[in-house]
């Protein structure tokens, strides 16, 4: 079990590092695009054209396809490699045909799609025409991202995590390069971004195909719509996609309701949630991706105690990683937002308004991450319906909380409603697990949770010693001050965790450096993770 935990920790570390790099490049991409194109008709057209393919990328890339494919593929792997590769080949063939059809339909139906997504563009014919042309160029990206998501599932099931996790980096690099080196040479510079998206999709495939081939995936097409395992993947994927879309649905609800509030409310919600997405990606998505192959293998042999042990360890590890991040965002929310956004038209008033919303979003950060960790248990047992039903209940609770809180708290109430709905989601996900796993054994988790909580108190102590006012300094000096305080916060937390002998600290070391006692006679298995 300890070796399994180390494997999860190392894999999560690899995925977190890749996610961190991708998110940083994403911020750089946004800055490059803003500098090159500003905010006008061209960028409006591009963002609308990119909305559907990008939404599919987020759903598939963060696990919808893997949640359906990996458990079934792991079951076939246990029976024998040939059966597993046969399933992979059939899935690749059917998925490829479906994605080609979707891409062609998107190209043909681009005028209708644009009118649905942006009905206001119909009053500006030039803008509508540009958006339709961009949509037709970008839509084939769906083929690349869909096939790439399948390769990610295959490689993750085989213990290889680094290359699939790096694939979003390729998209950001391609888009940045297209703006820097191609835009100035085009009659319509905005099309450089569309070409960059397509190039990024191709590169996402190119870096995964050689690894998949080396692992043994045969690329001979095999068409078989009647394979029971293939049909099961399809049945699992539809509710799985809906389940993973819950967060986006909640954000959409907040945006919709915020449109009835004061000007700027939607922007405050957007900027605050962008910051929350950072730890969700680093911890929640990374752990969920690393967990699924291990849980699927354990569930395939009905090893319930092993599944429980893996889940409880993962929740402890997620708590250990997320609690200091949550407290850091709460305590230093104003300096962080000041450093990132306060310049130009973004004034101190906007900084303070966004910081208030970040506070209420941060209260739910723990549950956003834990929901990502718990959901793979259901997927490992090939149950994607339960998370969807629970998620639907969470969406309804979000609507109710929003309507109750919005009149008094405004946009802050919408952020708080999202946090409360995440708590509701977590409560029911854990409660329903009892029917699958029996008692989870919460009693044995009290000591680790208490140790982590006490260690995290150092963050509150530091906030009392460092007034926020001295951090609100512009330029490089401000960056040094905020960065120094955040680094000191992390060091103090880790020192306190070390003094309290928090077990999770050892696994954090595994995640960061991939060293420590290994199975197989002391030989590390990092080559399986990195390929």
General form: globular
Secondary-structure content class: mainly alpha
Mean pLDDT: 79
Task: Give the strand tally.
Answer: 0
* Oligomeric state as shown: single chain
SSE arrangement, N to C: HHHHHHHHHHHHHHHHHHHHHHHH
H/I helix tally: 24
Q: Compute the gyration radius: what is it? A: 23 Å
Query: How big a fraction of the residues is strand?
Result: under 5%
Distance between the termini: 23 Å
Low-confidence stretches: 515-531
Q: Can you tell me the number of structural domains?
A: 2
The largest β sheet comes out as: none
User: Helical percent range?
Assistant: over 70%
Characterize this entry briefly.
The chain has 531 residues and is mainly α. 82% of the residues lie in helices and 0% in strands.
Features:
531 residues; mainly alpha; 24 helices; disordered C terminus
Please explain how this structure is put together.
This protein is mostly helical. It folds into 2 domains: 1-239, no CATH class; 245-443, no CATH class. It is built from 24 helices and no strands. Helix 15 (333-341) packs across helix 16.
Write the layout of secondary structure elements.
Blueprint (H helix, E strand, L loop, with lengths): L1 H36 L3 H21 L2 H16 L1 H28 L1 H8 L7 H14 L2 H17 L4 H20 L9 H16 L2 H7 L12 H17 L1 H13 L6 H36 L3 H28 L1 H9 L6 H15 L2 H16 L4 H25 L1 H27 L8 H20 L9 H25 L4 H10 L5 H4 L3 H5 L1
Helix pairs in contact: 1-8, 1-13, 1-22, 2-6, 2-7, 3-4, 3-7, 3-11, 3-13, 4-7, 5-6, 6-9, 7-8, 7-9, 8-9, 11-18, 12-18, 12-19, 13-14, 13-16, 13-17, 14-17, 14-20, 15-16, 16-19, 17-19, 18-19, 20-21
């Amino acid at each position: 079990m300890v070796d399994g935990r180390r494997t999860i920790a190392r894999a999560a570390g690899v995925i977190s590092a890749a996610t961190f790099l991708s998110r940083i490049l994403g911020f750089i991409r946004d800055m490059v695009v803003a500098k090159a194109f500003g905010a006008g008709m061209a960028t409006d057209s591009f963002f609308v054209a990119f909305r559907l393919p990008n939404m599919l990328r987020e759903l598939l890339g963060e696990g919808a396809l893997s949640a359906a494919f990996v458990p079934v593929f792991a079951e076939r792997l246990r029976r024998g490699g040939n059966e597993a590769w046969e399933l992979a080949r059939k899935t690749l063939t059917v998925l490829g045909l479906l994605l080609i059809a979707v891409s062609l339909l998107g190209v043909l139906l681009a005028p209708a799609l644009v009118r649905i997504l942006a009905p206001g563009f119909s009053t500006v014919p030039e803008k509508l025409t540009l958006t339709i042309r961009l949509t037709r160029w970008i839509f084939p990206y769906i083929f690349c991202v869909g096939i790439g998501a399948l390769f990610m599932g295959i490689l993750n099931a085989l213990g290889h995590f680094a290359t699939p996790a790096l694939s979003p980096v390729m998209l950001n690099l391609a888009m940045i390069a297209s703006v820097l080196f191609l835009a100035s040479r085009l009659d319509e510079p905005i099309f450089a971004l569309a070409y960059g998206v397509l190039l990024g999709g191709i590169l996402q495939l190119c870096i995964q195909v050689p690894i998949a081939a080396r692992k043994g995936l045969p690329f001979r097409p095999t068409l078989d719509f009647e394979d029971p395992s293939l049909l099961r993947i399809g049945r699992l994927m539809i509710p799985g996609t809906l389940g993973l879309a819950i967060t986006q649905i909640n954000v959409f609800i907040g945006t919709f309701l915020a449109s009835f509030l004061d000007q700027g409310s939607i922007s405050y919600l957007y900027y605050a949630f962008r910051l929350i997405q950072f730890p969700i990606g680093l911890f929640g998505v990374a752990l969920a991706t690393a967990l699924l192959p291990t849980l699927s293998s354990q569930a395939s042999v009905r090893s319930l105690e092993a599944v429980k042990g893996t889940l409880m360890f993962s929740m402890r590890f997620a708590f250990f990683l997320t609690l200091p991040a949550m407290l850091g965002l709460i305590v230093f929310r104003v300096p962080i937002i000041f450093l990132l956004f306060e310049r130009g038209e973004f004034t101190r008033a906007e900084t303070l308004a966004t910081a208030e919303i970040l506070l209420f979003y941060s209260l739910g950060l723990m549950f956003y991450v834990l929901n990502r960790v718990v959901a793979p248990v259901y997927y490992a047992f090939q149950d994607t319906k339960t998370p969807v039903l629970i998620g639907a209940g969470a969406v309804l609770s979000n609507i109710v909380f929003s309507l109750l809180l919005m009149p008094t708290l405004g946009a802050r109430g919408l952020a708080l409603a999202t946090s409360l709905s995440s708590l509701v989601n977590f409560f029911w996900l854990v409660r329903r697990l009892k029917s699958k796993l029996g008692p989870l054994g919460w009693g044995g988790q009290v000591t680790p949770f208490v140790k982590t909580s006490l260690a995290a108190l150092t963050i509150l102590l530091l906030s009392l010693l460092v007034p926020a006012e001295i951090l609100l300094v512009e330029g490089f000096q401000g960056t040094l001050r905020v960065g120094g305080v955040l680094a000191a916060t992390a060091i103090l937390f880790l020192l306190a965790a070390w003094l309290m002998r928090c077990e999770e600290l050892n696994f954090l070391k595994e995640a960061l450096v991939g060293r420590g006692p290994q199975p197989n006679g002391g030989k590390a298995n990092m080559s399986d993770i990195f390929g």
